[in-house]
Amino acid sequence: MESMTSAFQGISPLPHLGVIRVEGQDAASFLHGQLTQDFSLLGLSEARLSALCSPKGRVLATFIGFKRSHVDILLVCRRDILAAMVKRLSMFVLRAKARITDASDAFVVRGLMGQAALSVAGAAGRPWSRVDVAGASVVFLYPADGMPCALWVAPAETPAPDAEPASAEVWQLAEVRSGVAWVGAATTDAFVPQMLNYESIGGVNFKKGCYPGQEVVARSQFRGTLKRRAVLARAGHSLAPGDELFLASEPDQPAATVVQSAPGPQGGSEAILSGQISAFAGGSLHLGSANGPAVELRPAPYPLLEDI
Predict the structure, then answer these.
(1) Looking at per-residue confidence, does 283 or 230 come out higher?
(2) Which long-range contacts link 263-267 to residues 24+ away (Cβ below 8 Å)?
(3) Domain 227-307 classified CATH 2.40.30.110?
(4) CATH architecture for segment(s) 10-178
């Protein structure tokens, strides 16, 4: 794939992301028992990539969460499933002292790329590190083509940082190039976390104890049953989340699914796919059917857990 390093610069609006707020004395312990990552030990200089799973271990939603204080936690997630996740999490609060609300109108989320991320935060941070800057929280993400990327989350009235503007489409391509997939309405309840490589990028803590689907997630990791992974792809045609891809040699069942996509810089699309490891190892994947348009594959841009 051609490098987009020069394009991954500036500050971008992120209308596809919203904010869930969890407040109260038990906010951290409640989320600790619901999500795939550790929130009880989450420090104020850190963030967490995490997922909410079904009892069958399938990812219902993905989040980037951080503490504004020890009793005030924000979860950034896709807007198209946000209301459903507020409702689902609220069902399990029971006697916990935690209040869950849609805070998307109270906070604004922007994306910082390249020099904009460095100038706002003062220096590059490791993925999932967090710094406070003039009332905003800056959370560093995985880079895109080697360029730093960060979320800027602030109360709605906070002025935007002074940086070169960038389009939402450029940010969406940076998300794809980073290899860190967000689950939305088209792909909810479709993958266990490892099918998105989440155990390799800080999205799963195998020592934290129980949460919905924990036994399935752990069994997938430690019993060698995982047969699907996430990779990058490029096509000269449109790819959309939920699209299925087929091997020419196995026309009767899909071998991979598009998790996230973005317009390509030269037309067509780029995407994160989740699919059979065997399908990625050989053969050609085709969109929609075994005779559909071919898709070019590329490995994820980070080492997987067994390679670390």
Answers:
(1) 230
(2) 263/169, 263/172, 263/173, 264/173, 264/234, 264/235, 265/2, 265/4, 265/7, 265/173, 266/2, 267/236
(3) yes
(4) 2-Layer Sandwich (3.30)
